[in-house]
Model the fold of this input.
Amino acid sequence: MIDGAIKMKNKKSIEALPVSVRESLKKLGELIVCARKEKRWTQEELAKRIGVNRMTVVRIEKGAPEVATSWYLTAAWLLNLPILTWQALGEGRSDTMVSDFLAKLKKNLPGTVRRSRKRIDNDF
Done:
């Protein structure tokens, strides 16, 4: 079994995440708990379906930022949580809408991106 959690270098790495990111992970974890219970799955059953150990599911449900995003998304997919826009849109239209959105984005992108000489400020 693969463990989906990685060790963050230190507690400061987690604290460096924007508060809104940490809160979003906690809310996603809560959604996963509710959906799992609605399906009447134990943490162990969800873990086996994802391919991780039970402690990784515990960390997912707590919104731990050190857990790989792919495990969060796999859990959400298994539990039919429409957290991705194209999942929420339903069958058929979704692929077209995502393709159209990507085409629009790509149309406005520069050909190359060069390193900025400006100091990066993540204080939004």
